[in-house]
Specification:
With 853 residues, this protein is α+β, with helices and mostly antiparallel strands. The chain folds into 4 domains: 189 residues, Uracil-DNA Glycosylase, subunit E; 187 residues, Nucleotidyltransferase, domain 5; 156 residues, Taq DNA Polymerase, Chain T, domain 4 (Up-down Bundle), CATH 1.20.1060.10; 238 residues, Orthogonal Bundle (DNA polymerase, domain 1), CATH 1.10.150. It is built from 32 helices and 32 strands. The strands form 10 sheets. Strands 1-3-2-4-6-5 form a 6-stranded mixed sheet, with helices on both faces. A 6-stranded mixed sheet has the order 7-10-9-8-11-12, sandwiched between helices. Strand 25 and strand 26 form a beta hairpin. Helix 21 packs antiparallel against helix 22 and helix 24 crosses helix 31.
Length: 853
């Protein structure tokens, strides 16, 4: 079939247009109308253009591939297969057609809308790897002002700029992107009036020696700078180079590893001069990491207060937090991250890496200037300076301290859980009649669950390769247990088998946690991300440090392992290892078991302060339910009353003691069930999730939640309804502390649930985090007599010297129990809430805490 006999889509638009929109391939609407970028695509493009004072009628529209493909979606592997069917010869034909079109129209700006279109006019992306976590190159390069491919530009009379943005087809699937894509159109509209490329990168260069660096510093210090941005590049924790930018224009990289050895002393002296200068604010993207590395080389960093990631997460908590994203929305610097991520010392000159490092400093400096303007405009400057910035040092120190591990207790736990695993594994293998079954093997479990036990098939597809595999994750297996129970084709045996698979995997995760690599002096450390979540709550992961894996030396694959774990792994309700979360009722006992492994150093106590019913109290204020709030401090306690309400039991009989009343079917304390049920009700959790957490039948969980909401009508009637109204009208929630979140996703039940949780979780998280600075300012001895070791949203655990224990407890209680003024909250309440703190201590291990307040 010839090109003309196929369903062909024509280009069209304004003759001599300054803007040339380019899609990759036709969609159904394009085929029907026979015109490129028609229907809803046209309407979406026009909407963004009109915001900039122009319209689609003034533009030219085209497609790279002008015939129907066998697939016209955004899944990479399917699109790749469709292009292979089209054939290389046809693709080359279409390249020539596109070049002829661009030459004829002579636009100022070409706007590629997807990876196929981008690759046609900027073929650089075909020679590099897509960054981890990104599905499309368009998301990397959107908003960048790029040159047209060189072989075409050389033959054209005028310069043409390429400014990619995200296609309407992708925006339909990614509602969040709709809120930052207008920034791309602002650039497109601005650049359409000139063929000159804007000043973007400033001056980035590499110092050849100490004299070069000295001249740079003298030149910059003569301008009396108030801020310096610096960046480092490392390899397995070793410092390779450092770059500095003082003015947002000139950035110099110091290649430490390549400096003449006789000049290193002078170089290090100058580096320390900059780092330790108390009059110049230090700025960086995720500065805590760089600070931790540089500190190991003896550098003393002073006035570390500016972090573009922290500022960005405060301004736009829903958006991406990478430097490349901030570069695209705050600067004119094109996407350049491939220059560092693709660096290969075997084929690239080292200067490529050094200049990449210099660009990072340049970009971060320009970003910080623009972010400061927005913080001021949004009234967030004081919140950042007074509350957020001080956390950088505090969390750097938490990362450094870690938890001391008792090796004898560690070995006991390993023995205990390895024996438990072997016992459960033997039982599972006997159930299925397979002595070689590995419950951690997804292929083996998939075959067992779907082919042998005949459960309804659940498939997942790799978006890059298209390979289909069985879903065997915990949530999928839980779904079968909860919805089918003993009623599957496999009957009671199926229920037993799935339950035992989950149990074996859980025990393997416990063993994995207990056997986590430690520091040489026997501590479990982690790395906190202060901007880890949209609520402002922190997250935590493994440490930045690595250890060699002896058994992998000389083999292919990883030679090192990250040290430690997330220090937030063990909560009051359970534990988590990587992506697996175990927060069922019986997991609380396991979590306490694991805490016994962590001990206090000699002469120190564990002191843990925990906001008593913190989130529940906030919910009651937001629900205008002050009668319920008052019951938090009355007997019987609120969780006993909740359990009494839904199970029809006198709440006076329900206690939190180990010997308290238990549910006859699942053997769980009614008090603990009441706690889970109230949490579920406050955040509009559905019966499936409650069934996962409690092991009660899903039908029973539905009845429980109905009874809860009937008995607590203000949760939905006031709290949830007012949240929905605010989100529908403004899409923004603001906490009493001034922290805000704009909800950009599609308005649906999922988004509303996130909104219900935002205020309570954010308020309590900040109340805990902001307490640390107040303690430090009020109580001498920070990092000598007391050290914060774990922050867990509503609790804070510290090592405190016995000589300071009583004074620390008194200070902690005073600073934590400061009142929260709800007048400035999105759900404004003329109320000052005081959250009481419960304080427990132990001079032995973390699991043996005894309450003292």
């Amino acid at each position: 079939m010839s090109l003309l006999e196929k369903e062909y889509v024509s280009s069209h638009g304004y003759e001599g247009a300054s803007i040339f929109f380019l899609g990759g391939f036709p969609l159904t609407e394009d085929i029907k109308q026979g015109l490129a970028l028609s229907g809803h695509l046209e309407k979406t493009l026009d909407k963004f253009l009109r915001q900039q004072g122009t319209s689609i009628k003034e533009c030219y529209r085209s497609l790279f591939i002008k015939e129907r493909l066998s697939f016209s979606g955004t899944t990479n592997w399917k699109l790749k297969r469709a292009l292979e069917e089209l054939g290389e010869a046809n693709i080359i034909k279409y390249e020539q057609i596109l070049y002829d079109e661009i030459r004829e129209v002579n636009p100022v700006v070409v706007v590629p809308l997807d990876d196929l279109a981008l690759g046609a006019v900027f073929p650089h992306i075909k020679s590099i790897k897509l960054p981890k976590g990104r599905k499309h190159w368009t998301y990397c390069y959107r908003g960048s002002i790029l040159p047209l491919r060189e072989d075409w530009q050389l033959k054209l009379p005028n310069k043409i700029k390429v400014i990619p943005t995200i296609s309407p087809q992708m925006l339909f699937q990614d509602n969040l992107a709709n809120f930052y894509v207008p920034l791309d159109y602002n650039k497109i509209a601005r650049e359409m009036h000139t063929r000159e490329f804007p000043e973007t990168e400033g001056l980035c260069w590499v110092a050849a020696g100490a004299a070069d660096f000295a001249k740079f510093l003298n030149r910059q210090y003569a301008k009396r700078p108030v801020r310096v941005t610096h960046d480092i590049e490392t390899h397995h924790g070793f410092l390779i180079c450092v770059s500095f930018c003082f003015d947002g224009y000139e950035s110099c990289c110091v290649p430490i590893m390549d400096m003449p050895k006789h000049e290193l002393a002078a170089i290090f002296g100058m580096l320390d001069r900059v780092h330790s200068d108390p009059n110049i604010e230090k700025n960086n993207q995720n500065i805590k990491y760089d600070w931790s590395i540089e500190e190991r080389y003896g550098f003393r960093l002073e006035k570390v207060t500016s972090d573009t990631m922290l500022k960005g997460s405060l301004l736009y908590p829903e958006l991406l937090k990478g430097l490349d994203f901030y570069t695209s929305i705050f600067t004119n610097i094109p996407y350049y991250k491939d220059e560092g991520k693709e660096f290969d010392p075997k084929i690239h000159d080292k200067n490529r890496l050094y200049l990449y490092c210099a660009k990072d400093s340049l970009a971060a400096h320009q970003i910080s200037i623009e972010q400061d303007k927005e913080l001021e405009a949004e009234g967030l400057t004081d919140l950042y300076n007074n509350e957020i910035a001080p956390l950088i040092l505090i969390y750097k120190n938490i990362d450094k301290v870690g938890l001391l591990v008792d090796d004898s207790q560690k070995q006991k736990l390993l023995s205990k859980y390895e024996f438990t695993y072997k016992t459960n594994l033997a039982y599972l293998r006997d159930l299925v009649g397979n002595p070689d079954l590995n419950p951690s093997s997804n292929p083996q479990v998939g075959k067992l669950v779907y082919e042998d036990l005949k459960y309804p098939k659940r498939i997942k597809t790799n978006p890059e390769t298209g390979k289909e595999t069985y879903k065997t994750d915990k949530d999928t297996l839980d779904e079968f247990l909860i919805t089918l129970g003993d009623n599957s084709k496999a009957g009671k045996d199926g229920y037993k088998i799935l339950s035992r698979i989950i149990m074996c995997r859980k025990i393997r995760k416990i063993i994995e946690f207990v056997d986590s690599p430690l520091t040489p002096d026997g501590r479990l450390i982690g790395s906190y991300n202060i901007s880890g979540t949209e609520t402002g709550r922190t997250s935590c992961s493994k440490s930045i440090d690595e250890v060699l894996v002896p058994e992998n030396i000389g083999k292919k694959g990883n030679k090192t392992r990250k040290i430690g774990r997330s220090l937030q792994t063990i909560t009051k309700h359970g534990f988590a290892v990587d992506e697996d979360v175990f927060d069922e009722i019986n997991d609380t006992e396991i979590a306490n078991d694991l805490r016994n492994m962590f001990v206090a150093p000699k002469d120190y106590f564990f002191v843990e302060g925990d906001g008593a019913g913190a989130e529940a109290r906030v919910v009651f204020v937001l629900a205008d339910d002050y009668d319920a709030l008052a019951t938090m401090d009355q007997k019987p306690k609120i969780h006993a009353k909740t359990a009494g309400l839904v199970f029809g039991i006198d709440p006076k009989l329900i206690t939190s003691d180990k010997d308290g009343l238990r549910h006859p079917k699942i053997g769980t304390l009614y008090y603990d069930l009441g706690k889970r049920i109230r949490h579920a009700g406050h955040y509009d959790m559905e019966e499936f999730r409650l069934a996962q957490m409690t092991h009660l039948y899903i039908s029973i969980c539905k009845e429980i939640l109905d009874k809860f909401h009937n008995g607590n009508p203000k949760i939905r009637g006031v709290f949830h309804n007012e949240i929905i109204d605010v989100i529908n009208n403004t899409r923004r929630l603001v906490t009493p502390f001034g922290r805000r979140r704009d909800f950009f996703a599609k308005l649906d039940k999922k988004l509303y649930k996130e909104a219900y949780a935002y205020l309570p979780q954010s308020i309590v998280g900040d109340q805990t985090k902001f307490t640390m600075r107040r303690i430090i300012e009020a109580l001498p001895g920070y990092m000598s007599k007391y050290k914060f070791v774990v922050e867990n949203h509503d609790s804070l655990t510290s090592y405190v010297h016995r000589d300071l224990k009583d004074q620390y407890i008194e200070t902690f209680q005073e600073k934590y129990e400061r009142t929260i003024d709800f007048n400035q909250c999105s759900l404004s309440r003329d109320f000052h809430l005081k959250i009481p703190v419960e304080i427990a201590i132990s001079d032995s291990n973390w699991g043996d805490l005894k309450r003292v307040v």
